[in-house]
Specification:
The complex is a heterodimer of chains A (301) and B (257). Chain A has 301 residues and is α+β, with helices and mostly antiparallel strands. Chain A folds into 2 domains: 2-18 and 163-297, Alpha-Beta Plaits (2-Layer Sandwich), CATH 3.30.70.520; 22-161, 2-Layer Sandwich (Alpha-Beta Plaits). In chain A, 22% of the residues lie in helices and 36% in strands. Chain A contains 6 helices and 17 strands. Chain A has helices at residues 33-43, 50-53, 84-99, 121-124, 176-190, 256-272; strands spanning 2-6, 9-12, 15-29, 56-63, 74-81, 106-109, 116-119, 133-137, 140-147, 150-155, 157-173, 195-196, 208-210, 220-222, 245-253, 277-279, 290-293. In chain A, strands 1, 2, 3, 4, 5, 6, 7, 11, 12, 15, 16 and 17 form a 12-stranded mixed sheet that branches. Chain A starts with a strand and ends in an 8-residue tail after the last strand. With 257 residues, chain B is an alpha/beta fold. Chain B has 2 domains: 1-61, no CATH class; 74-250. Chain B has a 12-stranded mixed sheet with strand order 5-1-6-8-9-10-11-12-13-16-15-14. In chain B, strands 4-3-2-7 form a 4-stranded mixed sheet. The termini of chain B are far apart. The chains are: A alpha+beta (301), B alpha/beta (257). Chains A and B meet through strand 8 and strand 10 of A and strand 11 and helix 4 of B.
Chain lengths: 301, 257
């Protein structure tokens, strides 16, 4: 089952299975980075899994003032959904409720060269109740929506790209604190351009399997084969000897390459932080278009 | 290689330069451009009789005009793409009714910059004009869309009957700016008394203007940081018209309006 050792860390002979998704990148700017972060956190809240939240979203990275369209500090946010329509609905809801409402913010398209777009300001403008105005600046239309603070400026539309969702690593160790620290180190190493880790702190402790043993209507249920407390109770456990806790990191990325490299960073960071065992979740390879064998991640980043 | 026209002889009368746009010169070599005729007073004159032509019209669609071109009207008029860079002053109607592209004037512009021709429904409908010096009377008259940024001052009547679009005068708007303005934006980098048909609304930091000022900076104008982050007084008008336009006046004085 162990494909190779990375120091003292056993790496399983398996692969992560991922799916094609659509994504949008939003650049949220504000008077201060703190306000941009408030909006970004609110916008990416309750967006951990498409199963229950209809989208997956996370902060991609902070942007310095010089890197944003309006020269103010900003936060880039990635939002993933199963199709373009889904991206459009979720972006509209979330920008309307979490960004427009947040003091001093403006919201821009972070994927301006995408072929396909979904409307954003083009729909949100109706909040302006007829008092909205638009400006075309360097060929792109922006909407000025009058609000109690002054004006909310928002891009007319946002680009939608082809991304990859559901890349993952499962990190375990004998002692719970070591496992969590290793997962944390992996998550920190994985974040970066083109990567969203949608779960709290980037880490999910309740990894799921498709369907359920006890119900036909449940879309997902606990990944019991990776639950350490059930090791002695089931015949097909995936928890190796000596492993007491496991954490999963789910990775959505803007490309297959971005996901693979994030997994590589995460694997090596987890090993360096004392993980005893690293594996990945898949569905037997039949469901997902993208496979990421852990054996391909042996070389350090 | 950029197509460059350097003035060597002043014309005997005013010259209409509307045909010298990047999209119409695309792919032409220097000799062909020199042989083109321009209207000069009641007569015609060959480009080569007035300008030294070098380079060729390229796919990048960039045209450079150099010299004192105050007698040349309609430079960049009706252009729809590409870039014209003028190293010197230009005459009237520069960029009139342009629909796209960039016109950069490293000097002063005459009257009716980016404006509508008599009888035309609208002036400029797109693109960007950047003037480093001053602009003459009625800059942006009848404008519908696009951006005009003047580094210096505009003479009286900027934004006359403008429909929409943006005119920014970093050195300040002249008197009677925005008469008959429907939903356009005029911005003045220095204090100015708006027409009585405008009403004071508030002082704020307009986010869209910030983007436009950054764009002006990108196009080579010097834009003070204070203009980007400071507050502007918003006056709404022209109330004798639709009244959805605005004059933004830089006003970073704490006492202010």
């Amino acid at each position: 089952m162990t494909a190779f050792m990375l120091g003292d860390t056993g790496v399983a002979d398996t692969f992560a299975e991922a799916f094609p998704m659509r994504y949008a990148r939003l650049v949220i700017t504000a008077a201060t980075e703190a306000w941009a972060l408030e909006a970004a956190r609110s916008m990416t809240g309750f967006a951990t899994s498409v199963i229950g939240c209809k989208c997956e979203a996370a902060i991609e990275r902070p942007l310095a003032a010089g890197q944003t369209p309006d020269g103010r500090p900003g936060i880039a946010v990635l939002l993933f959904a199963m199709d373009r329509e889904g991206v459009g609905k979720r972006v509209l809801e979330r920008v309307g409720q979490s960004v427009m409402t947040c003091p001093t913010t403006a919201c821009f398209d972070g994927e301006p060269h995408a072929e396909k777009t979904v409307p954003l300001g083009a729909s949100l403008r109706y909040f302006g109740d007829g008092f909205q105005a638009s400006k075309v600046i360097t060929g792109r239309r922006f909407w000025r929506i009058p609000v109690m603070e002054g004006e909310f400026l928002v891009s007319e539309s946002v680009g939608v790209g082809h991304g990859v969702g559901g890349g993952n690593l499962v990190i375990g160790a004998g002692e719970h604190p070591v496992a969590l620290a290793a997962a944390r180190a992996a998550a920190d190493a994985m974040r970066g351009e083109g990567i969203a880790l949608p779960f709290p702190g980037g880490i999910v402790r309740s990894g799921s399997k498709v369907g359920a043993l006890t119900s036909k209507s449940m879309p997902a249920s606990t990944n019991h084969r990776m639950a350490p407390t059930l090791r002695a109770q089931i015949d097909d456990t995936l928890v190796p000897d000596g492993v007491g806790a496991m954490f999963e990191i789910v990775i959505d990325g803007v490309s297959e390459h971005a996901v693979r490299e994030a997994m590589r960073r995460g694997l090596h960071a987890a090993a360096a932080a004392g993980a005893a065992h690293v594996t990945a979740a898949n569905f037997g390879g039949k469901l997902g278009e993208f496979h990421f064998p852990l054996s391909e991640l042996r070389d350090p980043p | 290689m950029t197509l460059t026209l350097t003035l060597h002889t002043q014309p005997p009368a005013r010259v209409r330069t509307a045909g010298l746009t990047p999209e119409r010169l695309r792919g032409l070599h220097a000799a062909a451009v020199a042989a083109m005729n321009l209207r000069c007073g009641g007569d015609t004159v060959a480009v080569g009789d007035l300008f030294e032509v070098s380079g060729a019209g390229t796919e990048e669609e960039r045209l450079v005009l150099a010299g004192d071109l105050r007698r040349f009207d309609e430079i960049g008029a009706r252009m729809s793409s590409g870039e014209i860079e003028v190293r010197g002053d230009v005459g009237a109607w520069a960029g009139a009714e342009m629909s796209g592209g960039v016109l950069r004037v490293f000097g002063d512009a005459g009257s009716r910059l980016g404006a509508a021709h008599p009888g035309a429904r609208a002036g400029m409908t797109g693109g960007e004009i950047v003037v480093h010096g001053d602009a003459g009377e009625e800059a942006g008259a009848g404008m519908r869309r696009g951006l005009v940024v003047v580094g210096g001052r505009t003479q009286p009547g900027a934004g006359l009957r403008m429909l929409a679009g943006t005119i920014i005068a970093l050195g300040g708007l002249g008197p009677e700016a925005g008469l008959g303005n429907k939903r356009g934006t005029l911005a003045s980098g220095t204090a100015v008394e708006p027409l009585p048909s405008y009403a004071f609304a508030t002082r704020f930091s307009p986010p869209a203007l910030r983007l436009q000022l950054l764009r002006a900076r990108e196009l080579g104008l010097t834009v003070d940081d204070a203009l980007l982050s400071g507050s502007w007084a918003r006056w709404s008008g022209d109330r004798t018209e639709l009244g959805r336009g605005e004059i933004l006046i830089f006003d970073d004085d704490e006492e202010g309006q």
